[in-house]
């Protein structure tokens, strides 16, 4: 390689040292990723307002000069070879190689270039012996698929030429730390081809202020619309090393362009127990000191500084064209902010946002032992292994869950062998978090006490599956997983929204193509994030419960005005929910606690009456204008106003629960207006829950005061039927599909649609009961809101139908049921007794197995609205009947079936499975008026499968290793494409010469087998059923399999079989086989004959 050639010639200053402002990101081979990126930002982004401290970088030429001047190359090669062969340990090898660099001397031209560049940098800054940061930048560092996090060393607060040269020598040596050698070996990088550049950068006086790390993407979910910022007091090494629990800020990128908005989604105050500052010790440039109580209680950055960094992150991301991992620092002397590093993010950005992803659910949870920040979204159970010091890592038990204070790069070998990781310290941008994320190991960082409360050998469950907070549970919990596959999701007329309550888990679901949030419950945020009764905050001074006062005082520390705590927490909680699907609507239901639930909040008992039946008591709208709660409702309104008008989340829709009368609706609207929320102003929409019979009875009047309804089917069922939904004795009577409840729902939908008012439903019933969803859609509902884990099932609710349920139709239905590829399977037949019997028989298959497909009888009209329509209808051949007469009879059946289904849904796929299949497929295409890509016949698929099977048996190989197609017009004139056949990618003639397998005999045997099956049992029902299932699977799941099916060949004006790619929209394209001239002629001859037959038939009509 060019980079490892001997470099004995004298280099110019520019070859050995480059000022940052003369570097671009393409200079990675010369100065490494870190330094080339700094140069790129100074060159390209300074003019866009991004401030980067000046500096210079030594080049790879300087490194190789140092290596060769000290004879390092040959000695290093020998040492590494001994390690690879097992004759030396990693520790011995690393120590020996590092000593080669540390004991070396500087080539004169390299030393002179570094001294000169340092003097120029000091002069430019107006400071003699400028304090600088000295950082390593390997030429294989910060590549898109390898982060090299912390593999080489950095040295801060270096002052003076001699000290700088010593630090540079140590940087060279750090290219061969044990961890760096191990990491490069694992990633497949050649140790001898990687050089090291040294970045020398003006030191930002963050020791007198703060510094941190930020990502232009959410590190755990990959949500690409937020900037995540971590901040701590002092120099930034503590955040990277994970020795402090930093502040965490989240900024919403799409709203950063509005100068009048404050789109800070969240602010979490970290403990920040220590800070790194300059040291006066000549042997140590930095030291850690405890932070003051004031520093621990304060945020490192103010709002404007947070927004400034957020905007810089967007500028940098846009310039680089990918999500970025950046480090920043604030100068405590000048107050300036700087970006000191930027590199591509290497984990979330490499995931396909449209691909399937796995979700985890933890049940049967034990006692919570400790909590922290979750890294990743997985969960794992196992035994703990507590290791407090890196010197004891050899005691780690492989496959255990590692518990330690914090990790640095020395811990990487152990982290790779861990099932999970728990640390006392660190944030989402710490070393432990970055490496765990890259390894795909679930981790909980920043617990504060894990090494104190946990012990080796203890059985625990580590859960990162519940949002931003990670939990360590006692014992082995039940962990279940679900793969969420977004492939093949289609557009539907009825909007499908999500029920979300937990802001901490909102980003987990951003990939779902939901139409917004249909229900965000305020109670969840109040209970979990706020915990305090709002009236206890308003009237804190009059509280009698001293314990409650102390707890409120602790929770509201840092807030000058206690009600502001409620407004701040609530607005930020809902900001995360609104951000996840912005600009789609997020319907926020105002508080709907019952009095007994309110009383359980801190300080709540003093403000709530005791009621015999809280379900029908002082709840919902009645509280909002009551003097007993109106001040609390004011805090709710202030939070929504801040969310919409200060943060900018105008997609927030307000919904009022349990509004009993029109009078209440007016009172609530008046109170909201009094508190700054007026319907219609700034686009504010006001919805009401439809959960009381009065909401239905007076629906028309309610539409005058609200923009939309959301049907609360639980309460509406309870109050319509007079059944306590919590009563075990009456459980059988509680039924959302009761005719009285359905009458209520249908009526309110009809009124809403007539009055132009939006209406949806939130609840699990539509996802649990497809027939209920069907009822809602037919009634005209605008939206259905479901839990995230039900979303794909509801969105993918596909319906297949089989028209004609004799032997072939029943076999096809059986195969489809076992595969569970359709949510519903409709059976249609003119013989209704047969149809109903097949429905009952096939339903038993679903009950006895694990199939999720529901089978039911249906009409032709319903069949025409399905995703896939399989027509197997035909007629039996009667003795004495002519072939022509039988053909015309079958044509009449297909013509009648297709016409009976019209108008057929425009995106339906029509599959004809009846002979003569090519003729009937051509006829169905004419009558249905569907696009040619959506009308197909089973064609020669089964013949191809059968022939492959016979060939596989004779050759003694697996069927799926053979690629062989039967093409052309199905029947006696069909053609075997021997010329294109392959086995394992090798042509058939080469892998199995004709002398081994007689082609003609094999074809004849295939025909004879088919004849024997039909003669004995009347049809090849099971074989056809399997290929119907295969075709439907490729279509409904958008698999894009290649299948030989009958479809329109425009050149011949008729349908016959050639291989096609099948997907959700039917035929994506035809595969043009390179047939031999004889095969082409045979196909053309049979096609012309079929075309002529069709012309004669059309003339006869």
From TrEMBL:
Pathway this chain belongs to: Carbohydrate biosynthesis; gluconeogenesis
Described function: Catalyzes the phosphorylation of pyruvate to phosphoenolpyruvate.
Catalyzed reactions: pyruvate + ATP + H2O = phosphoenolpyruvate + AMP + phosphate + 2 H(+)
Entry-linked Pfam families: Ldh_1_C, Ldh_1_N, PEP-utilizers, PEP-utilizers_C, PPDK_N
Enzyme class, UniProt record, top EC level: transferase
Protein's recorded name: pyruvate, water dikinase
PROSITE patterns hit by this protein: PEP_ENZYMES_2, PEP_ENZYMES_PHOS_SITE
Cofactor: Mg(2+)
Keyword field: ATP-binding, Kinase, Magnesium, Metal-binding, Nucleotide-binding, Transferase
Domain Lactate/malate dehydrogenase C-terminal: 940-1099
Any one GO BP annotation for this protein: carboxylic acid metabolic process
UniProt-listed InterPro entries: ATP_grasp_subdomain_1 (IPR013815), L-lactate/malate_DH (IPR001557), Lactate/malate_DH_C (IPR022383), Lactate/malate_DH_N (IPR001236), Lactate_DH/Glyco_Ohase_4_C (IPR015955), NAD(P)-bd_dom_sf (IPR036291), PEP-util_enz_mobile_dom (IPR008279), PEP_synth (IPR006319)
Residues of the Lactate/malate dehydrogenase N-terminal domain: 801-937
UniProt cross-references to PANTHER family, sorted A to Z: PHOSPHOENOLPYRUVATE SYNTHASE
Domain Pyruvate phosphate dikinase AMP/ATP-binding: 29-361
Family indicated by similarity: Belongs to the PEP-utilizing enzyme family.
Domain spans labelled PEP-utilising enzyme C-terminal: 491-798
NCBIfam families in alphabetical order: PEP_synth (TIGR01418), PRK06464.1 (NF005057)
EC number(s) reported in the record: 2.7.9.2
Organism: Byssochlamys spectabilis (strain No. 5 / NBRC 109023)
Domain annotation PEP-utilising enzyme mobile: ranges: 398-467
GO molecular function: ATP binding; metal ion binding; oxidoreductase activity, acting on the CH-OH group of donors, NAD or NADP as acceptor; pyruvate, water dikinase activity
């Amino acid at each position: 390689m060019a980079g490892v050639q001997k470099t004995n010639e004298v280099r110019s200053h520019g070859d050995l040292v480059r000022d940052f402002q003369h570097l671009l990101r393409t200079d990675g081979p010369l100065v490494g990723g870190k330094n080339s990126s700094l140069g790129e930002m100074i060159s390209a982004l300074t003019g866009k307002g991004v401030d980067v401290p000046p500096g210079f970088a030594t080049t790879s030429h300087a490194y190789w000069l140092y290596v060769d001047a000290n004879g390092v190359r040959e000695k290093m090669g020998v040492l590494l070879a001994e390690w690879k062969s097992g004759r030396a340990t990693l520790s011995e090898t690393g120590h020996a190689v590092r000593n080669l660099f540390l004991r070396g001397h500087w080539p004169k031209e390299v030393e002179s270039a570094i001294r000169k560049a340092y003097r120029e940098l000091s002069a430019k800054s107006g400071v003699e012996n400028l304090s600088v940061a000295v950082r390593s930048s390997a030429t294989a560092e910060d590549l898109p698929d390898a982060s090299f996090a912390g593999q080489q060393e950095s040295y801060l607060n270096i002052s003076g030429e001699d000290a700088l040269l010593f630090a540079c020598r140590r940087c060279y040596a750090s290219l061969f730390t044990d961890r760096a050698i191990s990491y490069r070996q694992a990633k497949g990088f050649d140790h001898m081809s990687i050089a090291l550049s040294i970045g020398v950068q003006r030191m930002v006086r963050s020791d007198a202020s703060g510094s941190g790390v930020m990502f232009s993407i959410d590190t755990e979910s990959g949500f690409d619309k937020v900037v995540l910022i971590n901040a701590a007091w002092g120099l930034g090494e503590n955040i990277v090393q994970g020795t402090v629990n930093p502040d965490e800020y989240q900024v919403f990128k799409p709203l950063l362009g509005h100068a009048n908005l404050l789109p800070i989604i969240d602010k979490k105050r970290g403990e920040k127990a220590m800070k790194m500052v300059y040291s006066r010790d000549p042997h140590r440039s930095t030291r850690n000191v405890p932070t003051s109580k004031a520093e621990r209680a304060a945020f490192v950055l103010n709002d404007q500084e947070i927004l400034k960094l957020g905007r810089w992150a967007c500028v940098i991301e846009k310039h680089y064209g990918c999500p970025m991992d950046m480090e920043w620092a604030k100068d405590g002397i000048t107050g300036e902010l700087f970006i000191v590093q930027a590199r591509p993010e290497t984990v979330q950005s490499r995931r396909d946002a449209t691909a399937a992803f796995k979700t985890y659910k933890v049940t049967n949870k034990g006692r919570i032992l400790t909590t922290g920040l979750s890294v990743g979204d997985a969960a794992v159970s196992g035994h703990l292994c507590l290791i407090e010091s890196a010197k004891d890592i050899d005691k780690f038990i492989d496959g255990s869950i590692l518990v330690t204070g914090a990790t640095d790069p020395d811990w990487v070998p152990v982290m790779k062998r861990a099932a999970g990781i728990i640390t006392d310290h660190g944030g989402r941008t710490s070393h432990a978090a970055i490496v765990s994320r890259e390894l795909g190991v679930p981790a909980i960082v920043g617990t504060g006490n894990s090494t104190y409360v946990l012990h080796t050998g203890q059985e625990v469950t580590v859960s990162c599956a519940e949002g931003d907070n990670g939990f360590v549970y006692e014992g082995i919990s039940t962990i279940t997983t679900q793969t969420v596959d977004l492939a093949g999701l289609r557009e539907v007329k009825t909007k499908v929204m999500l029920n979300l309550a937990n802001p901490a888990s909102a980003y987990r679901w951003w990939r779902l193509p939901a139409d917004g949030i249909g229900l965000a419950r305020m109670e969840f945020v109040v209970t979990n994030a706020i915990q305090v009764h709002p009236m206890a905050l308003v009237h804190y001074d009059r509280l009698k419960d001293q314990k409650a006062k102390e707890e409120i005082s602790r929770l509201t520390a840092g807030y000058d005005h206690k009600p502001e705590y409620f407004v701040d927490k609530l607005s930020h909680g809902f900001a995360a929910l609104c951000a996840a699907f912005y600009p789609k609507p997020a319907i926020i239901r105002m508080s709907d606690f019952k009095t007994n639930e309110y009383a359980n909040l801190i300080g709540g008992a003093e403000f709530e009456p005791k009621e015999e039946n809280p379900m029908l008591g002082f709840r919902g709208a009645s509280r909002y204008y009551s003097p007993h709660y109106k001040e609390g409702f004011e805090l709710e309104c202030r939070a929504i106003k801040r969310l919409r008008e200060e943060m900018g989340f105008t997609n927030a829709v307000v919904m009022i629960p349990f509004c009993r009368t029109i009078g209440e609706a007016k009172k609530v609207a008046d109170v909201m207006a009094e508190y700054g929320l007026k319907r219609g102003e700034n686009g504010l929409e006001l919805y009401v829950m439809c959960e009381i019979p009065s909401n239905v009875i007076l629906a028309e009047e309610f539409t005058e005061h609200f923009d939309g309804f959301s049907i609360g089917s639980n309460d509406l069922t309870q109050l319509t039927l007079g059944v306590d939904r919590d009563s075990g004795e009456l459980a059988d009577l509680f039924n959302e599909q009761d005719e009285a409840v359905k009458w209520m729902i249908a009526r309110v939908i009809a009124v809403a649609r007539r009055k132009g008012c939006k209406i949806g439903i939130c609840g699990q019933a539509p996802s649990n009961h497809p027939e209920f969803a069907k009822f809602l859609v037919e009634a005209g509902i605008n939206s259905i809101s479901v839990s995230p884990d039900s979303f794909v099932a509801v969105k993918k609710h596909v319906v297949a139908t089989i028209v004609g349920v004799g032997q072939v139709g029943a076999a096809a239905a059986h195969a489809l049921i076992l595969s569970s590829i359709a949510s519903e399977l409709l059976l249609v037949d003119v013989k209704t007794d047969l149809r109903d019997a097949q429905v009952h028989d096939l339903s038993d298959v679903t009950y006895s197995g694990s199939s999720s497909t529901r089978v039911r009888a249906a009409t032709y009209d319903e069949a025409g609205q399905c995703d896939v329509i399989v027509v197997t209808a035909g007629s039996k051949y009667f003795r004495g009947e002519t072939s022509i007469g039988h053909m015309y009879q079958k044509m009449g059946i297909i013509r009648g079936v297709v016409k009976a289904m019209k108008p057929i849904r425009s995106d339906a796929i029509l599959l004809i499975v009846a002979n003569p299949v090519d003729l009937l497929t051509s006829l169905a295409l004419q009558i249905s008026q569907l696009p040619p890509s959506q009308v197909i016949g089973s064609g020669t698929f089964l013949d191809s499968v059968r022939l492959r099977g016979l060939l596989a048996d004779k050759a003694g190989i697996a069927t799926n290793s053979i690629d062989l197609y039967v093409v052309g017009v199905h029947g006696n004139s069909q053609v075997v494409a021997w010329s294109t056949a392959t086995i394992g990618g090798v042509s058939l003639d080469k892998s199995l010469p004709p002398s081994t397998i007689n082609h003609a005999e094999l074809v004849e045997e295939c025909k004879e087998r088919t004849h024997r099956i039909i003669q004995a049992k009347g049809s090849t029902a099971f074989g056809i059923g399997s290929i119907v299932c295969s075709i439907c699977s490729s279509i409904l799941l958008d698999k894009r399999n290649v299948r030989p099916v009958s479809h329109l060949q425009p050149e011949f004006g008729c349908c016959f079989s050639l291989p096609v790619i099948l997907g959700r929209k039917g035929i994506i394209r035809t595969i043009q086989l390179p047939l031999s001239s004889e095969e082409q002629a045979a196909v053309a001859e049979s096609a012309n004959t079929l075309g002529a037959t069709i012309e004669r038939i059309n003339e006869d009509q």
